[in-house]
Amino acid sequence: MRIVLVGPPGAGKGTQAIRLAGKLSVPHISTGDLFRANISRRTELGKLAKVCMDAGTLVPDELTIAMAKDRMRQPDAENGFLLDGFPRNVSQAEALDELLRAEAIKLDAVLGLEAPEGEVIKRIAGRRVCRSRSAHVFHVAYRPPKKQGVCDVCGGELYQRDDDSEETVRKRLAVYHTQTEPIIEYYKARGLAVTISSLGPVDEVTRRALEALKRREGDGR
């Protein structure tokens, strides 16, 4: 299957992307991984992306699209892929459509993960990370350390990352609602989008996602 995975920060998209790609035996294509891989290999695309990232600006759509195009042409993606973080807006969705048409490839489904805003904020703002190199992660509500502010594993100091603060999370959600969420409606109009709740145990969300994709595959036929 060829799938796009969409969801707000804190919905568990990264976890589900890896699990679903494994279950479906397709590569997980993450824009973050693409940027890091191209920068590490010092490709021309990577050099251009690094300039943007070092300047603190978004990587332009054309660069993201070029990297995604190159990755989707790799042998392991011949029979399917799971896109995570791309497309991130309607313009990129339209560009992806053009790219796939040019390659005579059909997108099978767009899976949207849904979670109440309050839950998303609670999930992210409650994270605490160990300052040690191992960077163990805890959560004040879901996985609290035995001793407040201290890592159970190495005794290092636990802290809240700047991008995990409630203020920053709300800003990230605003960007998601404005830029990324509209692609779900874009794909719904074409009969490709399905949405599920991302609440509950990780295994349950994965099962829910696989069932939704199976129904979508059946409808597509």
From TrEMBL:
What are the recorded Gene Ontology BP terms? AMP salvage
| Keyword terms, alphabetized | ATP-binding, Cytoplasm, Kinase, Nucleotide biosynthesis, Nucleotide-binding, Transferase
Give the record's pathway.
Purine metabolism; AMP biosynthesis via salvage pathway; AMP from ADP: step 1/1
Location(s) in or outside the cell: Cytoplasm
Q: Where is this region: NMP?
A: 30-59
Query: According to its record, what are the GO cellular component terms?
Result: cytoplasm
For AMP, which residues are the binding ones? 31, 36, 57-59, 85-88, 92, 161, 172
**InterPro entries attached to this UniProt entry:** Adenyl_kin_sub (IPR006259), Adenylat/UMP-CMP_kin (IPR000850), Adenylat_kinase_CS (IPR033690), Adenylate_kinase_lid-dom (IPR007862), P-loop_NTPase (IPR027417)
Q: What is this protein called?
A: Adenylate kinase
